[in-house]
Amino acid sequence: MHLEILIEDRSGERMLEILIPKVIGDDHTFQIHSYRGIGHIPKNFTVKTNVKKRLLLNNLPLLLRGYGKAFRGHGNSYQAAVIVVCDLDDKCFRGFRTELCDILEACDPKPEACFCIAIEEGEAWFLGDIPAIKTAYPRSKSAALNGYINDSICGTWECLADAIYNGGSAALSRKGWQAIGAEKWSWAEKITPHMDVNSNKSPSFAYFCQKLREFADPIR
User: Fold this and answer.
1) At residue 138, does pLDDT exceed 50?
2) Right CATH number for 2-122+199-216 from 3.90.320, 2.40.50, 3.20.20, 3.40.50?
3) Cis? peptide before 120, omega within 30° of 0
4) 21 cis-preceded (ω within 30 degrees of 0)
């Protein structure tokens, strides 16, 4: 099986580079495409967007249509799927998922695809594995980590920053979004190697792993 993974930022790309082989081993191929932000779903799926902006949702209708045609062009024996990974942020989960599925349903031909939504943000997947965080950051603040409720809407990256960044989220926020992005990439680099994909307490992460395994081994 070959997997095309679409994700909204570089820190998420780094996380998935390390995580995916942990979940499905090395017998499958995958390619990760990161974007410069999540963007917004266009109202008209057929209107061409500015692909140079590299915003995931803005380009998603075009991308999924392209994958549908490309996969069909390889013939029925070609096993490939698309996994779209993005943050929920402050959106309604049910409504957002419906919008994503509407994009897929509008494709003809339709690629094999699924949507994995991190709730509230990708850092929720780190916070689902507190032992991994403590291994990567031995001086992390247990009170901040233990107070987190898995997949809650609470300011997820801020919660992680309060636990492991000197001065917490307030100090990191004062440095601006470029510094925040660099720190998030560092978290992915340091925490992900220690993560146990079978004991993570984030429901949205468990769903991501489930979909990976279903694509990799559909008979399971």
Assistant:
1) yes
2) 3.40.50
3) yes
4) no
CB 80 within 8 A of CB 109: no
Q: Where are the domains of the chain?
A: 2-122+199-216, 129-194
Joined tokens for residue 201 = 């307490």
SS3 labels along 180-191: HHHHHHHHHHHH
Distance CA 202, CA 39 (A): 24
Q: In what order do the strands lie in the sheet with 113-118?
A: 29-34, 2-7, 80-87, 113-118
**CA–CA separation, 86 vs 11, rounded Å?**
12
The residue assigned the tokens 């897929």 is 104
**Which residue from 91, 93, 95, 113 is spatially nearest to 104, judged by alpha carbons?**
113
Answer whether 0.90 is exceeded by the pTM.
Answer: yes
Q: What is the pLDDT of residues 28-51, one digit of tens each?
A: 999 999 999 999 999 888 876 776
User: Has residue 76 got a pLDDT over 80?
Assistant: no
Separation of alpha carbons 166 and 123, rounded Å: 17
**Across residues 195-199, what is the average pLDDT?**
98
Identify the band that residue 209 occupies on the pLDDT scale cut at 50, 70 and 90: very high
Given this model, what pLDDT does residue 218 score?
63
